[in-house]
Amino acid sequence: MRRCWLWNKFLTVFVPKFLPLIEFEQPLEAKICGRISQNDVFRLITDFTWADSIISRTEAKDSYNVAPGMFRPVLHMEDDQLVVDDLHWGYRSAWGEASGKVPMAIKTRAEKISNSYWRGLLKAGRSIVLAFGWYEWTGEKGDKQPWHIHKRDLGPVCMAALANPGPRTDAKALHGFTIVTAEAQGGLVDVHDRRPVVLPADAAAAWPDPATPPEMAEEIVRIAALGPGAFAWHAVDPAIGNVRNQGPELVAPVNV
User: Domain of 146: which CATH number?
Assistant: First the structure.
């Protein structure tokens, strides 16, 4: 009887306290800002100079239209070695899975990563999501225009992430990842008020390093992220809104 009382108290008192600490996923049908492009996985995991070597275990295929719920390559540390594993985009803690009341987080605000829900991953789950860009939408419901944001030099972007690598189970989100976001600045505000935290090479190397203390990691996402001048963006075909669509035409500029 006491166990039941404690569990009910956990669900009604403690879970609501944690909910404001998480940026939640909407259902895939409604969520349109959670998309990235990883259209050349081999290049993504080989075309950077800040790591001497990596162990790649990814089996992910190239994708111009990566959505939450998919298993995608994520760079993380394992026994002092950089490793690429395919992890589920979307994270939920063990107690969140057990409660059934905590939605899956696909994005996490940089301002909240030191809160109790994220503290463990900030210490031991800092990771990098490699991509060639991400998508945002502008306009009113029913008439939204997608945009592809990418580096001006068209190189890979290193997005700060938090992850809990582990074996695949029925609870997919337990060993998933979430992308760290910050307030948009400069011209990026025109396409969205938030942006992924994209790190330059030196910060990307320090972010997942276990030798980097959590306090310094917080500083990295706060002050070391690339500014709006590093990026360009253009309108793309609304077909990107359907997660089943693939192909280079999805990132090709269109006139609006």
Answer: 3.90.1680.10
* Domain containing residue 79: 2-250
First to last CA, the chain: 63
State the virtual CA torsion across 38, 42, 43, 47 in degrees, nearest 10.
Answer: 120
User: How many angstroms separate the CA atoms of 221 and 178, rounded?
Assistant: 14
Backbone φ and ψ for 239, nearest 5 degrees, come out as: -60, -20
Q: Which of 4, 25, 33, 59 is catalytic?
A: 33
User: What digits encode the pLDDT tens for the residues 47-62?
Assistant: 777 777 889 999 999 9
**136 tagged catalytic:** yes
Residue 4 banded pLDDT, cuts 50, 70, 90: very low
Domain assignment of residue 226, yes or no? yes
Q: Does residue 194 fall inside a structural domain?
A: yes
Predicted TM-score (pTM) of this structure: 0.86
Q: What are phi and psi of 173, to 5 degrees?
A: -70, -15
Residue 192: CB atoms within 10 Å: 17
Query: Are the beta carbons of 88 and 173 closer than 8 angstroms?
Result: yes
Specify whether the CB–CB gap between 233 and 58 falls below 8 A. Answer: no
- Token pair of 185 as six digits: 């600045």
pLDDT tens for 92-133 read: 988 887 877 788 999 999 999 999 999 999 999 999 999 999
The verdict on residue 256 lying in a domain is no
| 158 included as an active-site residue | no
Assess if residue 255 is contained within a domain: no
Among 23, 78, 136, 218, the active-site one is: 136
CB 50 within 8 Å of CB 204: yes
Could you give the number of structural domains in the chain? 1
